[in-house]
Amino acid sequence: MTSGNPQEVSDLFAAYPDPTEAELRRLRDRLAASADAQGILDVAYRTLDTPVGTLLLAATETGLVRVAYETEGHDKVLATLAARVSPRILHAPKRLDAAAREIDEYFAGLRHGFDLPLDFSLSKGFRRTVLDHLSDIAYGHTASYAAVAAAAGHPRAVRAVGTACATNPLPVVVPCHRVVRSDGSVGGYAGGPAAKQALLRLEAA
Amino acid sequence: MKGKPPFDAVVAAHGATVHRVCRAVLGPVDADDAWSETFVAALKAYPELPDNANIEAWLVTIAHRKAIDVTRAGARRAVPVAQVPERPAAQRTDGRDLDLGAALAALPRKQREAVAYHYLAGLPYQEVAAVIGGTTDAARRSAADGIANLRRRYPSTAVEKGTTR
């Protein structure tokens, strides 16, 4: 009988265990801290439980780069960040501490505006211009897609404003939920119409 | 989806295997440092890694180099001993792996590496040879010798520790 029989050998190593979940968690936290300290953590992410579901928050060294609803598929969102920003992505909650706190405060009704560094690198051209104008719509107010198009300097680009809102990489923080249809109905939303209505109700309270 | 997965997914998929490899080669005390240095170096180089690369082989190659670095640093810090003893403070309380860990630590380095990279990381002998140097046949022989040595030492170690295995 040879000593290299694979079945025999796998029996030999069955007693040689994987690290525990807790050990791996600690190692991964330590990796995130080292990577951040060395400036090679291009994208840090965490999740945050909110009244509109679990949000994914991601930040570059510049600032918050992505807020994503569960309906968008968090794994898919991370894959897109890897392709469009950088594949150097780790679960690293520390960089998102301020963003998580402000979003918590917003949902508690204690905060009406965000004071966070933002990274708009996922948004280009006219869509980016539209996002800049969304922050002009005050907390508790709404504007129509047509009004935002006019404010952005292209009054006929109503559909393009709809697209810009639908592809907003920073929902909640950049308030695309405040843009509604001229007939008063809420219109579409990345997080689904129920999430949009929940945000508008929160701000109307 | 085109392109590489987020590095976090790489850690999730391979973190446990790389840790087993580091422990097998270095023992429990230095395994954490080698694991951390391996993944920091991998993260640094990750954007340049070709999309079709064998990630496990790439990680084992880095872990191999880091294990050598950790061993050298340890040799500068400490008085060398013939065989690194398993230090109780770093061992698990359940004691599951203590005997095999001691048997692995007693192997000549090349046998230990060949066994770890082939049997724990699952690399084919050709890849093992690329990592540790030498021919594919030499890697296969080192792994076979390592397993034969383990078979001789592991039961006797178990008897000394008073287990029934």
Question: How do you describe this structure in short?
Answer:
The complex is a heterodimer of chains A (205) and B (165). By secondary structure, chain A is of the alpha/beta class.
User: Mind telling me the CATH class of chain B?
Assistant: Mainly Alpha
> Any guess at the CATH architecture of chain B?
Up-down Bundle
Main-sheet strand order of chain A equals: 3-2-1-4
Approximately what portion of the residues of chain A adopt beta-strand conformation?
5-15%
Strand content of chain B: under 5%
Helical proportion of chain A? 40-55%
**How many separate domains of chain B?**
1
Order of helices and strands of chain B: HHHHHHH
| Derived structural class of chain A | alpha/beta
Helices of chain A, by number, come to 8
Major beta-sheet overview of chain B:
none
Give the overall form of chain B. globular
Looking at how many chains there are and whether they match, the oligomeric state comes to heterodimer
Tell me the overall shape of chain A.
Answer: elongated
CATH topology-level name of chain B? Butyryl-CoA Dehydrogenase, subunit A, domain 3
Please provide the count of β strands of chain A. Answer: 6
Give an overview in words.
The complex is a heterodimer of chains A (205) and B (165). Chain A is elongated. Chain A has two domains: 21-107, Double Stranded RNA Binding Domain (2-Layer Sandwich); 125-204, Arc Repressor Mutant, subunit A, CATH 1.10.10. Chain A is an alpha/beta fold and 205 residues long. Chain A contains eight helices and six strands, in the order H-H-E-E-E-H-E-H-H-E-H-H-E-H. The mean pLDDT of chain A is 93. In chain B, helix 1 runs antiparallel to helix 5, helix 4 (98-105) packs across helix 7 and helix 5 (109-120) packs across helix 6. Chain B is globular. Chain B has helices at residues 7-26, 28-45, 55-77, 98-105, 109-120, 125-132, 136-160. Mean pLDDT of chain B is 84; it is low at 87-97 and 156-165. The A-B interface holds A 2-4, 9-10, 12-13, 15-19, 23-24, 27-28, 30-31, 34-35, 38, 40-41, 43, 45, 76, 78-83, 86-91 and B 1-9, 11, 15-17, 19-20, 24, 32, 35-36, 39-40, 43-44, 46-47, 92, 96-97, 99-101, 119-120, 143-144, 147-148, 150-151, 154, 165.
